[in-house]
Amino acid sequence: MSGKIKLRDAISIGIGGMVGGGIFAVLGLATELARGGTPISFLIAGLIALLTSYSYSKLSFTYPDRGGTVKFINQGFGVNVFSGAINNLLWVSYIIMLALYASAFGSYAPNLFKLTDNHELATHLYSSGIIVFATIINYYSIVIVGKIESIAVIIKLVILLSFVAIGVYGLFGNPNLEQLSPQYWESTFKLVSAGMVIFVAYEGFELIANAAPDIEHPERNIRKAYFISVIFVILLYITIACVTVGSLNFSQIKNAQDYVLAEAAKPMLGQAGFTVITIAALISTFSAINASLYGGSRVNYELAEDDEEPHQLTAKLWNQPIGLLITSVATLLVVNTLQLESISTAGSVGFLLIFGIVNYVAYKQSDEIKGNRLISGLGSVGCFLALAALLVQQYSSEKLSVLIALAIIAVCFVGEYFYKRSERPSNK
Questions:
Q1: Residues 37-59: pLDDT tens digits?
Q2: Is 427 within a domain?
Q3: 400 exposure class (CB count in 10 Å sphere: 0-12, 13-18, 19+)
Q4: 239: Cβ contacts below 8 Å, ≥ 6 apart
Q5: Which of 135, 95, 91 has its CA nearest to residue 331?
Q6: CA 52 to CA 362: how far, in whole Å?
Q7: Degrees to nearest 5, angle at CA 104 with 404 and 15
Q8: How confident is the model at residue 143 (pLDDT cuts 50, 70, 90)?
Q9: In Å, what is the CA distance from 293 to each residue of 14, 320, 405?
Q10: What is the pTM of this model?
Q11: How far from chain centre, in Å, is Cα 43?
């Protein structure tokens, strides 16, 4: 049993995957969209994640595979153009998440180390530099990647839980506390769509699926790992949102949108609190980039092995899949060309579509996986309705974000169609 993953480690994988760079990147964005209703938006997004985690738990137990989501999609639809396109979208979504984490790192870092007075230039320099640095580490040693992640999970949770404990105490008597009352909430539709823009902060629970083959006592521990990690993170995010909205007025939140969590520590802990949270953000986003680079390159390798991408992508460069370099270069391109809201929207669109389809697979295969069709069906419908709400809301306010997200999906389908078509003659 020594080589098996224990329950606490599986829960750590889920929590570490979710509490990566997402909360640091999207908290300010969520508050701008939902205002006093930000905790409700995090709850709505969390409930969608919780429903989806049920489908993942059933699929992970029945089809344990290090390919995780890739395996589930192929199991539900076979290896064809549709499954190939969705699995390629998963890889692209990893790239988008990497760009989101790098963008968050680039926003927080200048508050500690000022490279230039041009804040936008400094953000791009830090965002690009951390991707390059993490890529070098991934090439140097996968063991180091794992060690960094293990240490980072502990550090960021200790700091965030301390922030929550002190922050909740500091709310009493704070005049901004009234901003949490319903009169400061946006409309129900906006609360839902805000939750979907920030849905990327929850997507990391799906990493448990990749570890499923190695989890000990899978019949009980896989289910527990998903539910405990998702429920813990829902409660953590809601509390962080309450502390932030109750500590700062809306104009302060808007001015510090890119590093609002650090700013929220100031009323309780002054400049020292700001610095500590900034350090936590840098550690969290760096570890998330490190782990996601590894995960993204593995997804790319799996797709090439399944002939959903050119088989040449199974080649290795400096003893690592060539997909690592491709993922890194693509991330550099995205983070230096798209705005934070466009990156977040594209990531949420991608994962809501993928999760809606995974829920449908669980619904379709319910007899085989011994799952509850109602729960998986609700998860699927919930994801698709949430996706529709996100697209409608963002199209009215941030049209470019929606067009970019839809273009990414279209490229995945068109590219897979032509790849499969070009393959046919050689298979005869």
A1: 999 999 999 999 999 999 999 99
A2: no
A3: middle
A4: 164, 167, 168
A5: 95
A6: 10
A7: 100
A8: low
A9: 17, 12, 21
A10: 0.85
A11: 16
Evaluate if residue 156 carries a pLDDT over 50. Answer: yes
The residue among 395, 333, 393, 266 whose CA lies nearest residue 103 is 333
Share of the chain above pLDDT 90, in %: 30
Q: What are phi and psi of 202, to 5 degrees?
A: -105, -15
Which residues span the domain enclosing 85? 7-422
Cβ–Cβ < 8 Å for 198, 348: yes
Contact present, 319 and 51 (Cβ < 8 Å): no
Sorted by sequence, the CB contacts under 8 Å of residue 407 that are 6+ apart come out as none
Task: Quote the DSSP letter at residue 365.
Answer: T
Cα–Cα distances in Å, from 199 out to 37, 192, 336, 364?
15, 10, 22, 24
Q: At what angle do helices 399-427 and 81-108 cross, to 10 degrees?
A: 140
Measure the CA angle with vertex 5, ends 232 and 375; round to 5°: 45
Cβ contact 104:281 at 8 Å? yes
Q: List the one residue out of 403, 350, 291, 381 whose CA is nearest residue 87.
A: 350
3-state secondary structure labels for all residues of 99-152: HHHHHHHHHHHHHCCCCCCCHHHHHHHHHHHHHHHHHHHHHHCHHHHHHHHHHH
Tell whether 1 is covered by a domain: no
User: What is the CA angle 167-170-172, rounded to 5?
Assistant: 125
Residues 163 and 175: their CA atoms lie apart, in Å, by 19
Q: Is residue 375 part of a domain?
A: yes
Instruction: Give domain status of residue 428, yes or no.
Output: no
Distances (CA, A) of 152 to 114, 157, 178, 288: 24, 8, 34, 9
Inter-axis angle of helices 22-34 and 188-197, nearest 10: 160
Residue-wise pLDDT for 66-92, tens only, equals 778 888 999 999 888 999 999 999 999
Hey, how many other C-beta atoms are within 10 angstroms of the C-beta on 419?
Answer: 17
What backbone phi and psi angles, to 5 degrees, belong to 384? -70, -40
Token reading at 303: 């797709």
Measured CA to CA in angstroms, residue 114 lies from 102, 109, 263, 278, 332 at distances of: 17, 8, 17, 13, 21
CB atoms within 10 A of CB 238: 17
CATH of the domain at 242: 1.20.1740.10
CB of 105 within 8 A of CB of 306? no
Count of domains forming the chain: 1
- How many CB atoms neighbour CB 77 within 10 A? 18
